[in-house]
Amino acid sequence: MDGTFAVVIPNFNGEATILQCLQAIFSSSLLPDEVIVSDDASTDSSLVLLSKFYPQIKIIRSTQGNTGSSGARNRGQASSEKEFVVFVDVDVQVSKNSFQLILEAFQKNPAHHWIVGSFLATQFTGQLPTHLKTHPVLNSAKDFYSDYKNIYMSYVFSALPENIDFIFGSICAVRGRARYTWPQNQNVTEDTEHGIQATNKWKQKIYFHQDLKVNHLKKYTFTSLLKNDFWVPHSWALLFWQHSSPKEALIKRRFAHARLWQIFGLAVAALVLLAPLLLNLASPILSLSLMMVIAASWFGWNLKFLLHLRKHFSGLTFVKATAFTLLDQWTMAFGVIVGSLEYLFGKRISPAQFTNSAGELVDESALVSIQTL
């Protein structure tokens, strides 16, 4: 198959998953011409593991301290001269044919600048080589909160059209001629900001590949998942209100990968949370009736997602997943509300900062492609 490609892995303290990530890459049906680990000032043993098990890997070290995943991606792509660059997060395992799907998609769609994939619905336990199975930091065991997050993300992505306006940094690929730097000062919304810049300002096309699915290894707990699902909508809300010009109306209608059922579901979830307060404002019968209507509306609006959960969870675990969905939506709604209020009172996400191939900040008006291949 024609086309040389490099794999860039941004790494910050990724010792728990980096060996699994690389093992999947080197087990692919189509091997990359170059694998680059762009380390972002890690303080764990991830680089020690690399030197021990994968000494052939090219490592790019940050000279500016921790600059976030965007900074690591920028340094990685700037160090490669291959025709395509595939970005793979350190907590991701590609499938056997991931790279083949990417190159075939680029060849089939020459007008597309980006190829974007998504997560598998649940984590799977891959077969590791014997010398990796005994390593103490490796953990492939399935758990409820990690699987729930992957199921949710998989469901959200499942109805996306082929042409989208955001980039999913966990698994994506770019042509050399379309390579612009990622915004380095945004560590939550960098994917969305980069997609806005690519589609709205640089007129690039982003193709979502439904079959390009990877295994997400990140471990979530009850607390860490709710914390994540507060801060992500919080940051998106701030970014949403900042992108309010008429030219960005299309982006606002399909902002990131938010869908109408999610937005309305958050509103209904908020009403469910507030419903008990209505007991003090109206008669008990009227309040109870209203609560039942709101609860039924929430179940009805989320029915498709709940049925999707039912395919993966059964019995009491499904009941737990249903209850957690409501709690998670409360958390996301609270994040949106707080982010919107902060915007109203003057808080703004810093304007996106971009760098040249040397890592120096440049003005966006002077920004040019890193490479033209």
Structural account:
- With 373 residues, the chain is α/β, with parallel strands linked by helices.
- It contains 13 helices and eleven strands.
- Strands 1, 2, 3, 4, 5, 6, 7, 8 and 9 form a nine-stranded mixed beta sheet that branches. A two-stranded antiparallel ribbon has the order 10-11.
- A hairpin with a 5-residue loop joins strand 10 and strand 11.
Major sheet: 9 strands, mixed
Overall shape: globular
- Which structural category fits the helices and strands? alpha/beta
Pattern of helices and strands: EHEHEHEEHEHHEEHEHHHHHHEE
The portion of residues assigned to helices is 40-55%
Q: Averaging pLDDT over every residue, what do you get?
A: 79
Range of strand content: 5-15%
Rg for CA atoms:
22 Å
User: How many extended strands?
Assistant: 11
Distance between the termini: 18 Å
- Our count of helices gives 13
Low-confidence stretches: 125-141, 246-257, 361-373
In summary, what is this structure?
The chain has 13 helices and eleven strands.
Give me some keywords for this one.
single chain, alpha/beta, nine-stranded mixed beta sheet, two-stranded antiparallel sheet, disordered C terminus
